[in-house]
Design goal:
By secondary structure, the chain is mostly beta strands. It contains four helices and 33 strands. The chain is globular, with a radius of gyration of 21 Å.
Length: 445
């Protein structure tokens, strides 16, 4: 488990360079960038509806900001440099004050030079507690990441590797759970576990199979839902969270693998569930589900419909795109490290003019089409949206998400009430894709 700080609503996070034993012996410590000398950073346990203050200090040699991913909080606290605040310079501090409106599983991460800062470890988990959640025997958290390490277990610093940027993003070679090479999870026959998954990887998508165990999804991206069993593995894209309830219904003394089958040609064992010797009887009752959060329901009578075309990258059809005030050939854009577009526009950074403006309170439908050969987990800041339809993934229909995964050539429609005023970032959470142009601003006036 990630160590929890004292249960209060005032926290101190300090970003600094820290050696962490990531790869295990005989490897040396990996030099990371992290909060409070640990990656993931400390678990922030917050309470729904309760004001929270988090003081962030920066001891790195470059500016940072902190984004509270999935928390529907006021725009000035959203932690996007230039757009919502000035970067926190080296040696300086900034106090984030906000009140989390929703209970659930969230995370925080730097949003400055994001691909590199998150890739080096600058993130941590958030749990906003439900006022009264149905009981489980244990509440566990797995922060999943993968690290691109060299032979000495040091982070490979090619964050602008064009092959990574133009394809699936930066995939690491060392997968960790809570910042460690996964060990078997010790379990007891009969117990009921709530397992909160957070995907903090720059680009890796996980598809987890819990051998012989029924996986019951009870929340996605923090938002409770009517519990369901996925038809296949539990698929979690970058930045997404999935809360599961697992009943330990198998045999004492046995081990059951947890396998990542996202790349079916090379399934990899992530970890295993290792039963202790004591017998125990699984509970017979069905997990009833979590209390809902106050997310406003979209009004589908007269929405603002915005087309979102995702294009670019290797094997794509796009010939040229808008970058600043110029239309440039993709070959030229590649040389500038820009490979990705939203509606054929390459983002210039956090000061782009808005993709569109919507009056506060109006319902927006985002009509996505992924015209590329690569997946894109698309994240909207400051709001959760309801998935109306998805061309492949029926499981997400009707669910509230803050990050929707679109595979190659897939399409989806999502709807949200634009009830949170301000300029909100909207981007691919394959962080290299965002860096290479797949980013935009949505203005709620
Ligand atoms: Cu992408």
């Amino acid at each position: 488990m990630v160590a929890a700080l004292a249960k209060n609503t005032n926290y101190q996070l300090t970003a600094a360079s820290t050696g962490i034993q990531l790869a295990g012996t005989p490897f040396p410590e990996t030099e990371t960038w992290s909060f409070n000398q640990q990656s993931p950073g400390p678990l922030l346990r917050l309470r729904q509806g309760q004001p929270t203050s988090i003081e962030v200090s920066n001891r790195l040699s470059q500016g940072i900001t902190v984004h509270w991913h999935g928390l529907r909080i006021a725009n000035p606290m959203d932690g996007v440099p230039v757009l919502t605040q000035a970067p926190i310079a080296t040696g300086e501090s900034f106090r984030y004050d906000f009140t989390p409106p929703d209970a659930g599983t969230y995370w925080y991460h730097s949003h400055m030079n994001t691909a590199e800062q998150v890739g080096r470890g600058l993130y941590g988990p958030i749990i906003v507690e439900e006022p009264a959640a149905p009981p489980v025997d244990r509440d566990l958290l797995w922060v999943l990441d993968d690290w691109k390490l060299d032979q000495q277990a040091q982070i490979v610093s090619d964050f602008d590797n064009p092959r990574d940027l133009a394809r699936a993003g930066r995939l690491g070679n060392t997968v960790t759970i809570n910042g460690k090479i996964p060990q078997a999870l010790a379990v007891k026959a009969g117990e009921r576990i709530r397992l909160r998954l957070i995907n903090a990887a720059n680009a890796r998508i996980f598809a987890l199979r819990f051998q012989r165990h029924r996986t019951l999804v009870i929340a996605r991206d923090g938002q409770p839902l009517i519990p369901y069993e996925p038809g296949g593995p539990v698929v979690i894209g970058p930045a997404q969270r999935i809360d599961l309830v697992l009943d330990m219904t198998e045999q004492p003394g046995q081990r059951y693998p947890v396998i990542d089958v996202y790349y079916p040609q090379s399934p990899a064992q992530l970890t295993s569930l290792s039963y202790g010797p004591e017998p125990g009887r699984a509970r017979g009752d069905e997990y009833p589900g979590l209390p809902l959060n106050p997310v406003p329901e979209p009004e589908l009578g007269d929405p603002l419909v915005q087309r979102i075309e995702l294009s670019g990258g290797d094997l794509g059809q796009l010939q040229n795109a808008q970058f600043g005030d110029q239309r440039l050939e993709m070959t030229r854009l590649y040389l500038l490290g820009k490979m990705w577009t939203i509606n054929e526009v390459v983002s210039s950074g956090y000061s782009d003019p808005p993709l569109f403006t919507v009056r506060r309170g109006r319902t927006v439908i985002l009509d996505f089409r992924n015209n590329s050969a690569w997946p894109h987990p698309m994240h909207l800041h400051g709001h959760h949206f309801k998935v109306l339809e998805h061309s492949r993934d029926r499981e997400v229909t009707g669910k509230w998400l803050d990050t929707v995964l679109l595979g190659p050539e897939e399409s989806a429609k999502v709807a949200f009430v634009a009830d949170n005023p301000g300029d909100w970032l909207f981007h691919c959470h394959i962080l290299g894709h965002a860096r290479a142009g797949m980013m935009a601003v949505i203005r709620v006036s």
